[in-house]
Design a protein that fits this description.
It holds the Pfam family tRNA-synt_1c. GO terms for molecular function: ATP binding; glutamate-tRNA ligase activity; zinc ion binding. Residues 2-274 form the Glutamyl/glutaminyl-tRNA synthetase class Ib catalytic domain. Helices cover 37% and strands 14% of the residues. By secondary structure, it is of the alpha/beta class. It folds into two domains: 2-82 and 200-315, 3-Layer(aba) Sandwich (Rossmann fold); 85-193, Glutamyl-tRNA Synthetase, domain 3 (Alpha-Beta Complex). The strands form four sheets. Strands 2-1-8-9 form a four-stranded parallel beta sheet, with helices on one face. A three-stranded antiparallel beta sheet has the order 3-4-7. Strands 5-6 form a two-stranded antiparallel ribbon. Bound molecules: glutamic acid. The site of glutamic acid has 7 residues, from loops.
């Protein structure tokens, strides 16, 4: 059994990231598996080197340890995506040969126009987008425009047994549609990189936030196209702020670094998160390793958890 946590170093980690990281860690440890840390710094615009270090320090402060990762090495490295581009290139060639990719010249604006959505909510890329692409392709090519590469998604449903959510029917044509594997600016897309890395690192169990469930159909198609068995998936419920909205790095949600600086003890954070998951009845000071023996994914609360003032008071020593 090999599990992983895969932070994107686009900011400091918040309590929601910590909760998912703990779950992935507890699951791997409870199964006697190997826990891998992988830094997903694919997006060169948004990722920052200082956050790579900061995120690893935040997770260590929380009490996590990993068997393989950027700072400890391991047999499946490098553990930083920006050092793995050659693997994505190789996978791209496999997909290209099998005829499942196509060049897409649609700009963000074109996509919004086709979707016809008034506020440009991204409808999945499908028939209408392909047809517009076919109309403008020759012209864009003459103009020397670089296309993105998309994976063609035909209408279909995929059955998934998720270890937390249960049986789900995924509809990738509606969820992502034809998804990007390499962006027009040459950057690699998340969907491709995450699958290539989980295959190459022999990950058997993916524990991650349920905001990624809609990406799972696209990823299952990539596993199939690359001739690999998919791992088991467990999509865990998210942590919500007092406003009922999920925590987000860009909103400046409470980060582990900020809590550390404010003198909050990591045992308080672990205890609060464990109680938010229903592993203990009420917050108690606890160490991350207190849960590794007994942890079972099947026992966690299945609903998102909303933080309120009393939780923050507990963190700060109330
Ligand atoms: N790097 C992704 C994130 O931080 C997680 C990807 C995954 O777990 O599949 O949201």
């Amino acid at each position: 059994m090999r599990g992983r946590y895969a932070p994107s170093p686009t900011g400091q980690l918040h309590l929601g990231n910590a909760r998912t990281a703990l779950l992935a860690y507890w699951h791997a440890r409870a199964q006697g598996g190997t826990f891998v840390m992988r830094v997903e710094d694919l997006d060169t615009q948004r990722s920052r080197p200082e956050f790579v270090q900061a995120n690893l320090e935040e997770l260590r402060w929380l009490g996590l340890g990993w068997d393989e990762g950027p700072d400890v090495g391991g047999a499946f490295g490098p553990y930083v995506q920006s050092e793995r581009f050659w693997l994505y290139k190789r996978a791209l060639e496999t997909l290209r040969t099998s005829g499942q990719l196509f060049e897409c010249y649609l700009s963000r604006k074109d996509l919004q126009d086709v979707a016809g959505a008034p506020h440009g909510t991204g409808a999945a890329h499908g028939e209408a987008q392909r047809s517009l692409n076919a109309q403008i392709e020759a012209r864009k090519r003459r103009e020397g425009k670089t296309p993105s590469l998309r994976f063609r998604v035909e209408p279909q449903t995929l059955a998934l047994h998720d270890e937390v959510v249960g049986n789900v029917t995924l509809n990738p044509a509606a969820d992502t549609g034809d998804f990007v594997v390499r962006r027009a600016d040459g950057e690699w897309a998340y969907q491709l990189a995450v699958v290539v890395d989980d295959i190459a690192m022999k990950i058997t169990h993916v524990v991650r936030g349920d905001d990624l469930l809609p990406s799972t159909g696209a990823q299952l198609l990539l596993y199939r196209a690359l001739g690999a068995e998919p791992p088991a998936f467990a999509h865990v419920p998210l942590l919500l702020g007092a406003d009922g909205v999920r925590l987000a790095k860009r909103k400046g949600s409470l980060t582990l670094s900020a809590l550390n600086e404010a003198g909050v003890r990591p045992e308080r954070v672990v205890g609060l998160l464990a109680s938010s998951l229903g592993l203990i009845e009420r917050p108690l000071e606890a160490h991350a390793d207190d849960f590794t023996e007994t942890f079972e994914l099947g026992r966690i609360h299945k609903e998102a958890f909303r933080l309120d003032e009393s939780h923050l008071a507990w963190l700060y020593g109330g």
